[in-house]
Backbone:
């Protein structure tokens, strides 16, 4: 099967970019033909190309039409639908908020996949999306890439912040304070320390404790680190066998980061450090969240999308109406209105420190100026 995976950029190693990388390589290993399309190519694209995966920033240059579109980030999904008028799509929602992850209806989007329960709720709120087309496939981790570390020490000695958001303007100062109080050697992995980390599997085994969320947390759990959920959005719990079943369907993400980030809050969680329990959590991740099993789930979804389109008669007027509705909602002027609203919201938030406020304003201005968004 030929699968076109879309993503707004394939440059930095971050959440959805790593999804495209990992899933493409696993689909290729299973004998399929993944293709990746993005408007911005970079390190991730080069890695895929080095493994023989076709990558392009121009749909016209693809060697052939795909059998199905694995669509991440709606502007690219719509472009792919328009470019390949007879191809079904699977739209993937990776975030409960945000512009690029917003779902939209098209009669050729045969499946809508959420990566956690909050994303599922976002899809279910869209009145036009048929309920039977919505399902959840939780994020997965490449178990060959992320190998188990050795036994944890009785008390933590080394810790890492694994986040592209970690900086002196966000949650890093609280973690640094905690590390100093508890005598932890602390390192930071992520973009704010210079660049994203393409090979975290080579670093995570060095640490006893990792402060992370979402995919980063899942990868650390697979290695066997004790994980305290934490990021710029807030602080969550230390992951244990008791709370694993509640946290996994939430993707260990923003929905569980409900506490303020402070050294005191984080210390209360880290005092539950338990090497035996951490090993049991890691064993569950490795038995339930492997990339191989997830890739087969995705292949089942792709096949069902292809089969459903084959037996569904879509009148051109229906697709034209859906396309018109999309551009009425997400045309350039509407997107600028949305961006300006986000900018006003950023200005109204009592951010800690002027630096983060400045970064937010710069990001909003850059976002509004970019005609590709």
Residues:
């Amino acid at each position: 099967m030929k699968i076109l995976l879309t993503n707004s950029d394939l440059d930095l190693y971050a959440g959805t970019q790593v999804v495209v990388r990992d899933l493409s390589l696993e689909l290729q290993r299973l004998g399929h033909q993944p293709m990746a399309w993005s408007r911005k190519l970079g390190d991730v694209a080069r890695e895929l190309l080095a493994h023989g995966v076709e990558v392009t920033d121009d749909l016209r240059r693809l060697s052939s039409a795909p059998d199905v579109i694995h669509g991440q980030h709606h502007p690219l999904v719509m472009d792919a639908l328009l470019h390949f008028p007879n191809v079904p799509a699977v739209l993937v929602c990776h975030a409960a908020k945000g512009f690029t992850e917003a779902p939209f209806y098209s009669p050729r989007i045969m499946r809508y996949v959420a990566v956690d329960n909050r994303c599922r709720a976002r899809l279910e709120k869209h009145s036009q999306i048929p309920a039977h087309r919505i399902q959840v496939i939780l994020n997965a981790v490449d178990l060959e890439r992320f190998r188990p570390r050795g036994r944890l020490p009785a008390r933590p000695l080394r810790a890492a912040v694994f986040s592209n958001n970690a900086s002196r303007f966000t949650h890093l100062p609280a973690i640094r304070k905690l590390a100093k109080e508890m005598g932890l050697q602390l390192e930071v992995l992520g973009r704010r320390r210079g660049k994203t980390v393409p090979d975290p599997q080579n670093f995570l085994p060095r640490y006893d404790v990792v402060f992370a969320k979402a995919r980063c947390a899942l990868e650390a759990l697979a290695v066997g680190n004790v994980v305290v959920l934490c990021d710029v959005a807030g602080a969550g719990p230390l992951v244990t066998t008791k709370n694993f079943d509640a946290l996994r369907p939430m993707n260990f993400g923003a929905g569980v980061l409900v506490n303020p980030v402070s050294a005191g809050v984080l210390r209360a969680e880290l005092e539950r450090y338990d090497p035996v329990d951490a090993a049991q959590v890691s064993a569950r991740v490795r038995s339930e969240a492997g990339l191989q099993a997830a890739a087969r789930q995705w292949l089942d979804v792709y096949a069902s999308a292809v089969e459903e389109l084959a037996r569904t008669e879509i009148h051109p007027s229906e697709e034209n109406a859906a396309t018109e509705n999309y551009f009425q909602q997400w045309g350039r002027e509407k997107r600028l209105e949305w961006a300006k609203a986000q900018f006003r919201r950023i200005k109204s938030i009592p951010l800690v420190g002027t630096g983060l406020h400045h970064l937010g304003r710069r990001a909003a201005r850059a976002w509004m100026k970019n005609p590709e968004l």
Notes: Confidence is low (pLDDT under 50) at residues 349-359, 361-373.
